[in-house]
Write a structure and sequence with these properties.
The complex is a heterodimer of chains A (115) and B (109). Chain A is mostly beta strands and 115 residues long. Chain A has strands at 4-7, 10-13, 19-25, 31-37, 44-49, 56-57, 64-66, 76-78, 87-94, 105-106, 110-114. In chain A, 0% of the residues lie in helices and 44% in strands. Chain A is globular. In chain B, the strands form two sheets. In chain B, strands 2, 4, 5, 9, 10 and 11 form a six-stranded mixed sheet that branches. The chains are: A mainly beta (115), B mainly beta (109).
Chain lengths: 115, 109
């Protein structure tokens, strides 16, 4: 593995189903993030984690949950998917969240469609 | 509220120079980032400015004026591979990135 990987690459999901998007990084970065990207809008932060064992809410956390059991993995769960959660989801990581010059590096994204 | 404004789309000619502007109003300021995003791909880091002035990196330069809430990304000697979206993002007082919607740059031969 090099950098950040996300799985699945794409998914079509029925409304009401539960779904977990996976994100793994091998850079030993402390901070990790989940964003959604919708046409015409900027990336919006869903949840973040500045270090293993801690998580925080971003701009649009409703309907999503995360966990950070270790440094490398940061899964995002949709407990009961709704069509408005159709989006492209990007996972990112940075060396130390909450600091200046802390550059975020992005995974390839998961394209999710909820019908 | 927090707001980042960029033009939605720009067109330029191969070999030319283009300037992409970004204005921002955020709760606090801890730096401004520019990212490049090719269609269907992840954003990739281009530049970071926290002090006023121009930062040059090869064909790309980024300028910041904190007093004006303004930045621009300057791309010189445009190549076809520069066709992409360019995202402006500000690190706010909570050290969270606030993102603009991006500027789609179309390069014509």
């Amino acid at each position: 593995i090099a950098g950040i990987t996300q799985a699945p690459t794409s998914q079509i999901l029925a409304a009401g189903r539960r779904m977990t998007l996976r994100c793994t990084q091998d850079m030993r970065h402390n901070a990790m993030y989940w964003y959604r990207q919708d046409l015409g809008l900027g990336l919006r932060l869903i949840h973040y984690s500045n270090t293993a064992g801690t998580t925080g809410k971003g701009e649009v956390p409703d309907g999503y949950s995360v966990s950070r059991a270790n440094t490398d993995d940061f899964p995002l769960t949709l407990a009961s998917a709704v069509p408005s959660q159709t989006s492209v989801y990007f996972c990112a990581s940075s060396e130390n969240g909450g600091t200046l010059t802390d550059t975020q590096y992005f995974g390839p994204g998961t394209r999710l469609t909820v019908l | 509220g927090q707001n980042i404004d960029q033009p939605t789309e720009m067109t330029a000619t191969e070999g030319a120079i283009v300037q992409i502007n970004c204005t921002y109003q955020t709760s606090g300021f801890n730096g401004l980032f520019w990212y490049q995003q090719h269609a269907g791909e992840a954003p990739t880091f281009l530049s970071y400015n926290v002090l006023d002035g121009l930062e040059e990196k090869g064909r790309f330069s980024s300028f910041l004026s904190r007093s004006k809430g303004y930045s621009y990304l300057l791309l010189k000697e445009l190549q076809m591979k520069d066709s992409a979206s360019y995202l402006c993002a500000v690190l706010d007082s909570n050290y969270q990135l606030i993102w603009g919607a991006g500027t789609k740059l179309i390069i014509k031969p």
